[in-house]
Specification:
Length: 238
């Protein structure tokens, strides 16, 4: 894009993906926006639980830039990107989750018995058919469990969990792990036997600079000449 979005207003920093979900082999076109033209952004790709790989430093020509990220199978079911920039004396951070659903890793299993009903002691034959996400035949190992279904009436149903959620209900997590010198306080660094700067006078720490065009923030009371003041008991005398 030729437009660098310099005329637009954004949040302090934004990360926008071009799609809601991705598949292995896709490319994420990540849009990075800042509200400061010419800012420098550090982009962290695939951080996990506060652990980061070295970032990519992106100097912004305007307020927007684009970055491409290739998706592989190891990115299922999700991963994160994090961007950091510093301006106006503050650290601005944004985290975005990228979803890569694992449906293509799940097989379809179809079991077809040779007869509809069987008598006790009769041998049964089963035809097991495996297909992948696209309906194509899949060759692999299969485990079959055989039991009397009448037991489910006693147990209240099958105790076998749904296999897809068993393997794919987990997700990667990420939390912000950030430290900045902007959040720290430092004391004066002095040479040996060097006198530090101090407040002027007893009430120097209460003094505030005057605003332009106005008088001092704290005015001194005018002293009166001796003999002109009033005392609590009556007029003062010289």
């Amino acid at each position: 894009m030729g437009d660098d979005s310099a005329g637009y207003r954004f949040a302090k920093i934004e990360l926008i993906t071009d799609k809601a979900e991705y598949a292995p082999g896709d490319t994420v076109r990540l849009q990075i926006n800042t509200d400061r033209k010419g800012a420098t952004v550090m982009l962290f790709v695939r951080p996990v639980n506060g652990v980061y790989l070295p970032p990519k430093v992106i100097p912004m020509a305007g307020k927007s830039a684009f970055e491409e990220i290739m998706i592989s199978k190891k990115d299922m079911p999700n991963f994160f990107v994090e961007a950091v920039t510093v301006y106006d004396g503050k650290v601005h951070t944004e985290i975005r989750e990228v979803v890569v659903p694992p449906e293509k890793r799940v097989l379809n299993v179809k079991v077809t018995p040779s007869e509809k009903d069987y008598r006790p002691g009769q041998k049964a034959k089963l035809k097991v058919q495996l297909t992948d996400f696209f309906g194509e035949p899949f060759q692999g190992s299969t485990v079959i469990s055989v039991y009397d279904r009448a037991l489910e009436y006693i147990s209240g149903g099958s105790n076998v969990p749904e296999i897809r959620s068993f393997f794919w209900k987990w997700r990667r997590h990420h939390r912000l792990n950030q430290q900045s010198s902007l959040a720290r306080w430092f004391t004066n660094q002095l040479k040996k036997n060097e006198a530090p700067m101090k407040n002027i006078g007893v009430f120097g720490h209460l003094m505030m600079p005057a605003e332009p065009g106005k008088g001092p923030a704290i005015e001194e009371k005018k002293t009166r000449s001796p003999g002109c003041g009033r005392s609590r008991g009556g007029k003062g005398t010289g």
